[in-house]
Design goal:
By secondary structure, this protein is an alpha+beta fold. Among the domains are: 4-63, no CATH class; 70-114. Helix content is 55%, strand content 15%. A 3-stranded antiparallel β-sheet has the order 1-3-2. Helix 1 (4-15) crosses helix 2 (20-27) and helix 6 (56-68) packs antiparallel against helix 8 (116-130). The two termini are 50 Å apart.
Length: 172
């Protein structure tokens, strides 16, 4: 069962465009917890909230609607192109011609195309809320080498050689 903080976080997340860590702070979670939102999104209570408000079936339906959502776009084509050639070209990229207006120097063509921007944003928010993105993989390497070389030119040469070898090995 979702906790009160989880419910508040969910509400605030919807209000701020899907930013879970920001919503966690507003709901009263510590800064340390808010820096690790996966601890919340992996909790059973959060998953219950997601299933109640964003059921998988609804997401799948909306996903399909958004993938098929269309917008009207416009392009110009050379006047030498026939309507058939224009239509073939537009349809070859998965679009459908709505109107062709013939001009003296160019042909204006309006066509239906996928509205990728709104679809992508809506899906991104839903997947973030459900915690369905894979965790990012990162690696940090810190190398500290301290030596007292006391202005010895051979020590400088040795240091430079080993730094170059290490750099070359790390970049292979």
């Amino acid at each position: 069962m979702p906790t009160l903080k989880q419910k508040k976080t969910f509400k605030f997340t919807l209000e701020n465009g899907g930013r879970v860590s920001k919503a966690m702070k507003k709901a009263g979670y510590s800064d340390a917890m808010a820096r690790n939102p996966q601890k919340l999104t992996e909790a059973n209570g959060w998953k219950e909230l997601m299933q109640a408000y964003l059921p998988d079936e609804s997401l799948a339906r909306k996903h399909q609607e958004l993938l098929n959502n269309r917008a009207i776009d416009h392009m110009v084509f050379p006047v030498a192109m026939t309507d058939g050639e224009i239509t073939d070209m537009v349809e070859s990229i998965g679009c459908r011609v709505k109107k062709i207006k013939h001009g003296k120097t160019v042909n204006h063509v309006w066509f239906f195309t996928i509205d990728a921007q709104s679809a992508g944003k809506a899906l991104d928010m839903a997947y973030k809320l459900k915690g369905l993105y894979a965790a990012e993989k990162t690696a940090n390497v810190n190398l500290n080498l301290n030596a007292d070389i006391q202005l010895d030119p051979k020590a400088y040469e040795l240091r430079d050689r080993y730094e170059k070898e290490l750099f070359d090995q790390l970049n292979d």
